[in-house]
Structure formats: structure tokens, C-alpha cells
Amino acid sequence: MCGAPEQTQELPPGTDLTRQTVLTGTVRSGGEPVGGAFVRLLDGSGEFTAEVVASASGDFRFFAAPGEWTVRALHRSGNGEAAVTADGPGLHSVEVEVA
Hints:
With 99 residues, this protein is an all-beta fold. Helix content is 0%, strand content 55%. Strands 1, 2, 5 and 8 form a four-stranded mixed beta sheet that branches.
């Protein structure tokens, strides 16, 4: 069983967005949410940092440090990636289109 928490847009209780950096988003294909994608977080140098499985509604989230990140999604319908800049604590959203 995966140790990652269930992926939802709702943040866990106690999340302090004045102190924590959260990258959140949705995996989509043709504009529609795609569930079950493997979503990887890569740091500014392209190194693998973390991976979660998107929820049935395509949602994912990572707790990260401020900086430049790439979010890559791998799904049977295709792959995609998107860049996101987390310039400080808070909620940083990104959509990843797979094709």
C-alpha cells in the first residue's frame, strides 16, 4: 500500500499556508480530469523528488520547498508536464495536460 495520503483538493487539517509551500493541481486529457496518473515532482535541476497517484478526479498535491519545479504526469492515455514556480509559502496551482 502506498504511504502517500489520499489526493484531494482539500488540504489536511493544520496546514499553515503562511509557512508551508503546497503544489496542487489536476491531471487532464482533452480538458477532462484523468484519474490514476502517476504524478512526479522534479526539482529545478530535473531530479526526481516525489511521486503520488492522482485521485479518481485527477487531483494531486505535494508539500515542497519554494523554488522552480516540474510536475510530470504519466498515464495510459499519454504523458505531460508543466512548470510551476513556488516563490514562497502558500498554495501554488498547476494543471498538467497529458496527450
